[in-house]
Amino acid sequence: MCSETGSRCTGMLLLALATAAIIANLLLYFPNGQVLEPAKITDLVWFFHGFLGAGLLVMVPALMLLRGDGDGCCAYRCGMLFPVLLATQGTAGALYCVVISSLGLLSGPFCDTGNGNYTYPFRNNTLEDSYLFNQPTWAACQEPEQIVLWNVVLFSILLGIGVVEAVLCLSQVISGLCDIFCGTCVRKGQVNITGL
């Protein structure tokens, strides 16, 4: 974690991904650009997996990585524990986004199937007859227009963002734990083996 260039690049990437996750989650509240009553929005959107999970919980370690470490960051193992805890928090938030996005893709959108009857027409499908692989079944959702495509694209984006964030944050956790337990650190061409 004490390699400043690598940490700052990771921090910038995490910050960009967290911002994209917040925007994607926000778009899920406005299917096809329409403003709907809260009761007509897919229930999994209200878990705030893009805002909270892949957004705010990942933004905190991203900002810490961008800030960089002060002089002597590797000299104190206790001082390296805080970034590891923040990266663990980011990993948990990203995994939360992955789980909710996967559930959102599997269960499908909340939509009007005709006569103003809002329901989840794809929620009880098995993986073999999933609506994801059978595009003609998307016509079951009549309102909001293109809601199935809207949900599939945005939940897929959030799923991808969550996976990348989880990998990046987990790599920071592993790097930090190696620095703490092995006592090695590369900073401006120096190697510190004592660690204390």
From TrEMBL:
Places the protein is found: Membrane
UniProt entry keywords in alphabetical sequence: Membrane, Transmembrane, Transmembrane helix
Annotated TM spans: 12-32, 44-66, 78-106, 147-170
Membrane topology: Multi-pass membrane protein
Taxonomy, superkingdom: Eukaryota
Transmembrane helix recorded as keyword: yes
InterPro entries given in the database record: L6_membrane
Family assignment from sequence similarity: Belongs to the L6 tetraspanin family.
Protein name as annotated: Transmembrane 4 L6 family member 1-like
Organism: Equus przewalskii (Przewalski's horse)
Originating gene: LOC103554587
